[in-house]
Amino acid sequence: MFTGIVQGTAEIVSIEEKELFRTHVVRLPQELLPGLALGASVAHNGCCLTVTAIEGDLVSFDLIKETLRVTNLGDLQPGDIVNIERAAKFSDEIGGHLMSGHIMTTAEICKIIQSENNREVWFKIQDPAQMKYILHKGFVGIDGISLTVGDVTKTKFCVYLIPETLERTTLGAKTFGDRINIEIDPHTQAIVETVERVLAQRESAAIKALSEQGDRE
After folding, report:
1. Mean pLDDT, rounded, for 58-83
2. Which CATH number is 8-86's, of 3.65.10.10, 1.10.10.10, 3.10.20.30, 2.40.30.20?
């Protein structure tokens, strides 16, 4: 479990490619190394990965076919930078919102509006079916960062970024066309799907009642 508060960034040092599989090695900041062990969970751009090897500050992670397909981690090359968050502890402050580290889809940056102290970034989701979970003032995970949704259209949504977020995460260097990992807020997803299921059941019951009434007449 993660909170969406990025703790630092890390450079991809090397990548070993195999058939539908890759291992990448990152150089973790010193402050994120204490207590790190094999099997620990670390979010890379919001995607939960498992530590497979540790050599000083060089830490290895395996990426399977599904991870490479769904996320932007398969696009990375040595020298690229990722957002990093260690798994949350029960005593940690939840400054963002609870996140599972399971990426649902990706989105492309389609517009950036810059003002003196703010940046408005618009995203177009790769899987349009996921837009039903993107609600005005709701939560969304963007490359592992817990953010509040701003305006929403049928196909796009935006977030507003303060200088602190731009400085501490990779979003400050992103530009048009870049692909971003998206994690849908699980509570929002559960509510939307529950409402859909209830409405579908009511519609089915209403149709059945009308059909039975027609048979009696």
Report:
1. 96
2. 2.40.30.20
